[in-house]
């Protein structure tokens, strides 16, 4: 990759995967897979395009649009669209690369990709966002399809934007097909899709807790620190509350909301926060209100990891690299026993190294880390179920989808666990490395498919 411009996020994601593969016995048992890693690190296709649109003043605006179609060995490219001013190729390549192996872990027929634009929805009117979506899809429609590439939402792209994008695709192509996931329930969407990433994260951690405690513990009575306050954080909080946990934090781009009473952040408060997010308001409005100011403190410019006191479970659910090395140490000092990424690459490599070192040294008393490609796979899993429903022209009930989601997350945990035991033998009393096991399991499946299809000899 030395002949490419610096792509720090992508390089971090690649090194994190490559290091765990190289430090396992995978390449000793399957030396041909070394070549697969080199090939899989290069996207099959990168599409970059201009998006011109008109604001409400009649002024022409221009943004950059992207779609990184990374790997289709297991199925159509699958991954979200992100509208945010920080979007660039490094971030989209990192997200698309992670998506390949995350999708493989679901056991569904999906490849990996990612896309978006450096468009900032904040400060824009609904009409301006709609016009941007239509302009973006006028170009993107040439490169996607139900059996080619099926995008979904991500940061800045909610169900509303998916609707506008889908309408523009349908108008351009003159056909209805399941080309996007996260659609509305009355026009091809799946029930449980909005909840899926957060719910799936909690289901995954529940298996971690049960395994570590020999089936004696659950979320009941656990103090759970969550970052973010968007879709993933909200539904992770609600499901953890349902299972008996106390939520002690949420956050936004400006700072962290920390509970100061024993009740923590209740389900009712999560609903209020969700309404604030829809209105694009900050959590400070809740913290400063007369009704709630005695129940919370809002800490400007801080993430929650050093601010919560005692922590049992940490769920970073905002964005990449949101747990640093010193924050990892703080979580260990706070008594955290489980950390799982609701966001993609939520922990820095330094933080992961600290968690893995603690896992080896403290054995059964250690913190146990789960990477996003496994722990937050629930969202794309239900997107895959939405694709299946679209193909069959069926709609499953909430209960049916939730049961399938639970099964996928259980299998995802078990696959990473058993693969770690096979390829990275844990020391006596150690928890298996879920980051190594998940990386190896996802990569192994993709590499085998690439070899079967003649992607290299």
Automatic annotation (TrEMBL):
It catalyses: L-glutamate + NADP(+) + H2O = 2-oxoglutarate + NH4(+) + NADPH + H(+). NAD(+) binds at residues 197, 231. Residues 190-454 form the Glutamate/phenylalanine/leucine/valine/L-tryptophan dehydrogenase C-terminal domain. This is Glutamate dehydrogenase. Gene3D superfamilies: Glutamate Dehydrogenase, chain A, domain 3 (1.10.285.10), Leucine Dehydrogenase, chain A, domain 1 (3.40.50.10860), NAD(P)-binding Rossmann-like Domain (3.40.50.720). The record marks 154 as: Important for catalysis. CDD domains: NAD_bind_2_Glu_DH. It comes from Cryomyces minteri.
């Amino acid at each position: 990759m030395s002949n490419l411009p610096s792509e720090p996020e992508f390089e971090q994601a690649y090194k994190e995967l490559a290091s765990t593969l190289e430090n396992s016995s995978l390449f000793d048992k399957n030396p041909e897979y070394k070549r697969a890693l080199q090939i899989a690190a290069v996207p099959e296709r990168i599409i970059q395009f201009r998006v011109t649109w008109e604001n409400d003043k009649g002024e022409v605006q221009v943004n950059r649009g992207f779609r990184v179609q990374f790997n289709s060995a297991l199925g159509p490219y699958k991954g979200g669209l992100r509208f945010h001013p920080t979007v660039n190729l490094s971030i989209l390549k990192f997200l698309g690369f992670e998506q390949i192996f995350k999708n493989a872990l679901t056991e569904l027929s999906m490849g990996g990709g990612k896309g978006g634009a450096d468009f900032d929805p904040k400060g824009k009117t609904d009409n301006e966002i709609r016009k941007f979506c239509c302009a973006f899809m006028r170009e993107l429609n040439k490169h996607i399809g139900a059996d080619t590439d099926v995008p979904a939402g991500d940061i800045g792209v909610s169900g509303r934007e998916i609707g506008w994008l889908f309408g523009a695709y349908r108008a351009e192509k003159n056909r209805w097909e399941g080309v996007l996931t996260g659609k509305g329930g009355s026009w091809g969407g799946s029930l449980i899709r909005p909840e899926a990433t957060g719910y799936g994260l909690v289901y995954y951690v529940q298996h971690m807790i049960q395994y570590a405690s020999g089936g004696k513990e659950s979320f009941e009575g656990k103090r759970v620190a969550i970052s973010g306050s968007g879709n993933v954080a909200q539904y992770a909080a609600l499901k953890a509350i349902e299972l008996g946990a106390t939520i002690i934090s949420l956050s936004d781009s400006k700072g962290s909301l920390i509970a100061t009473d024993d009740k923590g952040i209740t389900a009712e408060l999560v609903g209020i926060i969700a309404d604030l997010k829809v209105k694009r308001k900050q959590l400070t409005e809740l913290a400063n209100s007369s009704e709630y100011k005695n129940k919370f403190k809002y800490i400007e410019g801080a993430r929650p990891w050093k601010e919560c006191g005692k922590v049992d479970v940490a769920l970073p659910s905002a964005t990449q690299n949101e747990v640093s090395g010193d924050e990892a140490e703080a979580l260990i000092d706070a008594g955290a026993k489980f950390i799982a990424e609701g966001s993609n690459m939520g922990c820095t490599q330094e933080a992961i190294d600290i968690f893995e070192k603690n896992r080896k040294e403290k054995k059964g008393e250690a913190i146990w880390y789960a990477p996003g490609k496994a722990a937050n796979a629930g969202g794309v899993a239900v997107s895959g179920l939405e694709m299946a429903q679209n193909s069959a022209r069926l709609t499953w009930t909430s209960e049916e989808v939730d049961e399938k989601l639970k099964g996928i997350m259980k299998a995802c945990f078990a696959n990473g666990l058993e693969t770690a035991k096979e390829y990275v033998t844990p020391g006596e009393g150690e928890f298996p490395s879920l980051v190594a096991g998940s990386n190896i399991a996802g990569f192994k499946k993709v590499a085998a498919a690439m070899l079967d299809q003649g992607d290299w000899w």
